[in-house]
Amino acid sequence: MSRSDRDSSLGLLAACLLPFIILATANSAGYRFGASDQAFYAPAILKRIDPTLYPRDSELISSQARLTLVDEVLGPVVRATGIPLSTAFVVLQLTALSLLALAALRIGGALYRTRWATVALMAALTLRHAITKSGTNTLEGYFHPRQLSFAIAALAVVSFLRGRYGVMCALVAVAGALHPTTALWFAIWLVVATFVSEPRLRIAIAAGVAAAGVAGVWALLAGPLAGRLVRMDAVWLETLAAKDYLFPLDWPASAWLVNLAYAPIIMWIYRRRRDAGLLVPREGALVVGCVSLVLVFAATLPFNAARLALAIQLQPSRIFWMLDFLAVIYVVWAAAEGLTADARRARMVALAIVVLATVRGTYIMFVEFPDRRVAQVRINDDDWGRAMAWARGSRAGSGWLADPGHAVRYGTSVRIAGERDVFVEAIKDGAVGMYDRSVALRTRERVEALGDFTTLTSERARALSSQYDLDYLVSERALDLPLEFSSGAVKIYRLQ
User: Fold this and answer.
1) 3-state helix, strand, coil in the chain (%, to 5)
2) What is the sign, positive or negative, of the torsion defined by CA atoms of 233, 181, 108, 295?
3) Which is it for the CA torsion 282, 349, 318, 59, positive or negative?
């Protein structure tokens, strides 16, 4: 890339970055700290900052945290700098979106012939949508390591197209430290692509794959993945009944139709570009590598059917996120440029997608979720937030009882907002149970022991406190228990 092209590209990024971030955020129903899957990641980081936290829930928290380096990296950084975790997450969210925008810009610059087509691609990537039966979305309204990993790996795709294989490998490695499975599927995509495009590197690639295989065998037999080559028994599987996306052979036909449509769409548009002589270097190999992921997915199905723990924990259905990404890139090209690359057409398509993203984001923020702010960067100062502030001042080792669905009801969990152990958070604890049978059974046992929280009596709360050594109860009900704190409808009772 010449200096003038680089300056032009940076100018386009500067012009589009803020609108990209705003549209992506609006289409994700705003930014929220402490939401959803942060129930996994934030407590692990908080425990790295303060090892006295979560003495009761350490096993549950570490069952997933041990699979990534996010807590090991962010914990010391946050502790050393003294910045709040909420601020760090905002910075990381902005970083993830900025890198995704940069990847779109670079990919558009490589594959498209007009700048307006690149603008169209950037706008299209703000249209958050679910990847069918994968348990993931293309964007999230909160910082998730998976999103940052994806953005970094998307830049690795750019490095591949430029033939910068060392940079490509380094970017995939960084992505892997953040979210191993997201990086794994990108790694397979790009290794296959490099193998196809560079015959001179095939021996080195084969050696690298063999070395990775040896490392994988070690990890499975004696390393961090040890114990995952087992079949999930009926009791374990029962705890995952609500996670139907984990079992592809049980998907409805519509899910198969959507996910298997990506490959033919990609191939059809690729052939149009090839027949028109519009391919760029290594583009064909990039397509082969991406489409090969369908074969990888197919190869996992027998192991999934056998209910092998590793085959389920890898969540291979997320392979279709990568195919979705390339399909979006190609569909935008077909719409904005096609075979003629008319700048006026590209501009009209770009403006149409921008308008669509703006209208959709506005509808989501002001009609679907009118009570949400565009950005909630810390715990809200509402009744729940004030109760959790009180919780943070309580004894670090205290045990808390709350509605098992409290994180959905209030927007964030006791573990994040209150920085305290909680008896059970049914949805997220159940999801973590996928990685550890003992955690899964612990969650089930506690959900059953608690029963219907809306009918919890003072006597039953005391019995649970005695059985599980619980100290406090958070509830909106009036109970015959010592009241320690209240804010509006939210009350904190002392159990012992």
Assistant:
1) 65, 5, 25
2) negative
3) positive
Q: Is residue 45 part of a domain?
A: no
β-bridge partners, 418: none
| pTM, full prediction | 0.95
41 in a structural domain: no
Based on the structure, what is the number of domains in the chain? 2
Domain span at residue 406? 383-494
Domain assignment present for 71? no
Q: Please say whether the beta carbons of 136 and 37 come within 8 A.
A: no
Same-domain check for residues 414 and 350: no
What is the spatial distance between Cα 123 and Cα 362, in angstroms, rounded to a whole number? Answer: 15
The type of residue at 199 is P
Q: With CA atoms as reference, report the closest residue to 313 among 210, 411, 428, 231.
A: 231
- Which of 368, 391, 408 lies at the terminal end of a domain, its last residue? 368
Q: How far is CA 119 from CA 2, 104, 408, in A?
A: 20, 9, 36
Kindly list the averaged pLDDT for each block of 10 residues, start to end, along the chain of length 496.
60 93 96 89 93 93 87 92 93 97 96 96 98 95 96 98 97 95 97 97 95 93 88 93 91 96 98 96 98 98 96 96 98 95 93 98 95 90 96 94 94 94 92 91 94 94 95 95 96 94
- Where do the DSSP E strands lie in 86-243? 130-131, 136-137
Residue partners of 332: CB distance under 8 A and separation at least 6: 117, 120, 121, 124, 349, 353
